[in-house]
Design brief:
The chain is of the alpha/beta class. It has three domains: about 150 residues, Beta Barrel (OB fold (Dihydrolipoamide Acetyltransferase, E2P)); about 250 residues, inorganic pyrophosphatase (n-terminal core); about 100 residues, Diaminopimelate Epimerase, Chain A, domain 1 (Roll). It is built from 18 helices and 18 strands. It has a five-stranded parallel β-sheet, with helices on both faces. A hairpin with a 6-residue loop joins strand 15 and strand 16. Helix 13 runs antiparallel to helix 14 and helix 16 crosses helix 17.
């Protein structure tokens, strides 16, 4: 697909000049980007880089936190068994794992529960509630789920089970009637850090409960590595509190990695571990447990300390990850063949009766990348259709599903990703309603593939000194993306094709100045560049066999 380039609005020339004077003339390209992002001086940059430390955050600002912490502290005194119930994805399983490690350290008695993707589906389940009641649990904490489970929570409370919801998804019109509902997205919640992960909300609860029980919340600082995994995998904004947690977590992973995380990173080449390593090496493997087997396998791994058991668990998870890849490829081919027949639909709703439920979210994302349309991928199981959805830039997916919710049994999620369940006989009506909602809410001028460019640049501006400064601005992610530079009219020399023609490696050269930089284009092996080209790139290091070389990674290439 040919992408339209959209350039970020230029910042004040005066502000750019002033910041360049502080940083130095070789860093004018970086000054342009930082001013665009609201950072106008070296002092502001230094203040922004560390984020907001956890020690400066009061978890009791979260609505209902006083009640939640008091109830959990009471459970400790009374020696009640607490159930930690979490979703089967990375955010949910890390939330349960952090809770288990924290509360056991603080003297609580607890059990953990992850629902079966096929038997129970997404979110708080009746089976989980019944298991809690059958085993004498008095308090259940719903992590990364529960915000819309109003009826089930009302029923559970009537049956004598107290429930605390610790979620980060968008609430419905009415909050569930739980003992406490912790969700920064509540309209009446004064907590300033609105975009925590589900694990992050749980982490605030553990710290508040330690404080309420007379324990030291700083004893939980070492658990920020797992919270950082949830933040990276769930793609929440890397600013403020989230930024500080991720920086602390990555520092811990690099200095003395938790054995479980070290096991998941064992196939990665030695070297500094970044958030991208967490997202692409740790996240998919944790997810694979819930996708292909059972999410509790991930909790067992993340909370395990015995080396031999840990080795076996990590091998099991890697096997599930390989199975996930193979399954995903087959389902993707079938889904995209179906998508090609829906060229008249603005929103794609795809259905396979035998597609593996565990890979539907990944397949939806792959389909979005191919067709640039919001995509829902469904499969049939026990008389119901269930699946996952992924959105495109500029479209609020949750809002679209809300507009079509009369045809759904249940749904949940956020702007970019969601899950849903519906009856087979409702499929045609839902497809029509979803397409209409997309048509109404997706601006026409945003319906073509787009490549964001933070700033135009010349090759001579992209040097090792700049790359070292960019490292100071990491971690990069949502709301702090790595700067994307636009190079126009450059020539590609010494072009080589890698991995049986899949990828491209070359030297980009400015014909005017002769400045050059190595470039790598993953998935660009099909291109045969002739003459001047325009490149959208990010600057990074190529580390291979102990050698570290500056390179530009191609995001878009246009002849």
């Amino acid at each position: 697909m040919i992408k339209q380039w959209t350039h970020a609005p230029e910042g004040s020339a005066q502000a750019v000049a002033a910041l360049t004077e502080e940083l130095g003339a070789p860093y004018a390209a970086l000054s342009r980007v930082l001013v665009q992002r609201g950072l106008h001086s070296l002092a502001e940059i230094k203040d922004w880089i560390p984020g907001i430390p956890i020690s400066q955050v009061d978890p009791f600002q979260i609505a209902d936190m006083p009640q939640a912490a008091a109830r959990l502290a009471h459970a400790r005194v009374q020696k009640e068994t607490v159930m930690l119930f979490g979703d089967y994805d990375v955010d949910g399983t890390t939330a349960v794992s952090v809770g288990k490690l924290a509360l056991e350290r603080g003297g609580w008695s607890l059990v953990t529960y992850i629902p079966d993707r096929y038997k129970e589906g997404y979110g708080l389940s009746e089976a989980g509630v019944q298991h809690a009641l059958d085993t004498g649990v008095k308090l259940l904490i719903a992590l990364d789920c529960g915000i819309k489970s109003n009826e089930l929570i009302a029923s559970a409370q009537q049956r004598g089970l107290d429930i605390i919801v610790a979620d980060h998804h968008t609430p419905g019109a009415t909050l569930p009637p739980a003992a406490a509902v912790l969700d920064p997205k509540r309209k009446d919640c004064p907590f300033p850090h609105k975009e925590l992960s589900g694990c992050g909300v749980g982490y605030m609860l553990w710290r508040a409960s330690f404080q309420k029980a007379g324990l030291d919340p700083s004893d939980l600082d070492d658990l920020m590595d797992l919270v950082a995994v949830s933040i990276g995998a769930d793609m929440v904004p890397l600013v403020g509190l989230n930024r500080a947690i991720v920086r602390a977590g990555l520092a811990s992973i690099n200095a003395h990695p938790r054995p479980s995380l070290a096991a998941l990173l064992s196939a990665r080449p030695a070297g500094h571990i970044t958030l991208q390593d967490v997202v692409f090496a740790i996240g998919p493997r944790i997810n694979a447990a819930g996708r292909m087997h059972h999410g509790h396998l991930a909790v067992d791994l993340l909370t395990q300390g015995h080396p031999e058991i840990l080795q076996q668990l990590s091998q099991d998870i890697e096997a599930h990850n390989l199975q996930r890849r193979s399954t995903e490829q087959g389902v993707s081919l079938a889904a995209q063949a179906q998508a090609a027949l829906q060229s008249d639909q603005l929103g794609l709703v795809l259905l396979g009766t035998d597609w593996h439920k565990g890979v539907l979210g990944i397949v939806a994302q792959r389909t979005v990348e191919t067709f640039y349309k919001p995509t829902i991928v469904l499969t049939e199981h026990e008389g119901k259709l269930s699946g996952s959805a992924r959105s495109v830039p500029g479209l609020d997916l949750y809002d679209c599903l809300d507009a079509a919710c009369e045809h759904l049994i249940q749904f949940g999620g956020h702007r970019a990703a969601a899950g849903m369940t519906l009856a087979p006989e409702k499929l045609a009506d839902f497809r029509k309603a979803f397409n209409a909602a997309v048509e109404q809410r997706w601006p026409i001028d945003q319906r073509e593939p787009n490549q964001w460019i933070d700033s135009p640049a010349e090759i001579h501006e992209l040097h090792e000194g700049l790359a070292h400064l960019l490292e100071r601005l990491e971690p990069f992610g949502m709301e702090n993306e790595a700067p994307i530079w636009g190079l126009k009219g450059v020539e590609l020399e010494h072009v080589r094709k890698l991995s049986e023609g899949k990828h491209l490696r070359a030297m980009a050269r400015d014909p005017k100045t002769g400045a050059q930089i190595p470039v790598i284009g993953f998935g660009w092996g099909h291109v045969d560049p002739r003459g001047p080209v325009n490149l959208a790139i990010v600057l990074e290091w190529n580390i291979f066999r102990g050698n570290k070389e500056l390179q530009a990674r191609i995001l878009d290439l246009q002849s």
